[in-house]
Amino acid sequence: MSAITRLFEFQHPLAKFLLHCAPSPPPAPDYRGAAKEQGAANVEAAITQGKINNPNVYNPYGSQRVTWDGNQPTIQQTLTPQQQQLLNTGTQAKIGLSGLALKGTDLAGGVLDKRLDFNQLPDRPGSAEDTRTKVMDAMMARVNEDVDRQKNTLNSNLYASGIAPGSKAYDDAMALTERARTDARNQALLASGQEMSRDFQTDTQRRRDALAEMLTERQTPINEITALMSGSQVSNPFSMPGYAQNAQVGAAPIFGATQLAGDWNADLYNARAAQAGNLQQGLFGLGSAGIMGGAMLSDRRLKSNICRVGTHPLGIGWYEYDIEGRHEQGVMAQEVLGVKPDAVVTMPNGYLAVNYGGL
Asked: Could you tell me the CA-to-CA distances from 97 to 84, 100, 218, 355 in Å, in that order?
């Protein structure tokens, strides 16, 4: 049975010390409480931001003062006497225009109650073929009369000259005279087409003008009401105060800080647990060579990288240090000699050891 096994089997004080070296786990972070504190911080930041972004304003138009009742702001605007008079006058004018618009509404209601009667409009223009026929007849009447007279005269002259009807010379002479009638008919067709188009456009415009007049009569009351209601608006010079309302105030990151603190405590606990494990492993590694009658090597001369981390109940220091390649925690044998010399023994190699059970 090894010396270390005997320590734990008989509940030696050193075994109790080894068990006492293990750190206690940190308490769980209070995330619920942190969330409540974060909410309160958010509200406080919002109030601060509201106060910064709602300053008191003093300008040639008057003043604007902001007061706070708890979290509720109140904005009071006071115009100069001149601006107040302008505001009152504008309001009265607006009321007067509204009254006129109300009267116009009654008039417009009477107009709109009447159904549009398109039968009152001039007839829609037709094809205007009658116009073409009239123009053709008017233009060809004299031409036909003249050509017929010329043909009779030509017929008499040809017959007297011995050119009988049916001969080529007779037919050519008559065709030449008839050509004038054909040319005149072509000119009459063009002129009658132009006159027919002008007549159609005139009828169309007459109907369009009549329709526009009918719609104007119907829409005029509505337009008058719209003009009255859209007159000059009464403006408040403080509706847009000349101040950049863009200050942003962030709440204190309480919840995030709580998370970081929890992570730090967890890391610290893990580090201390690792140190305790190294200490116990180092003590176990001493075996029978490092433990004699419950005493452990604790001579300052064997230690390096010494750092005081606490105070023993006897009033002496509690240290972290390196000894024989191990990192451990414990007391200095030289200090124990001054307060409890019976807990210190001298090892065969001349170095001092401490009986932690006696401490």
From this structure: 20, 5, 21, 106
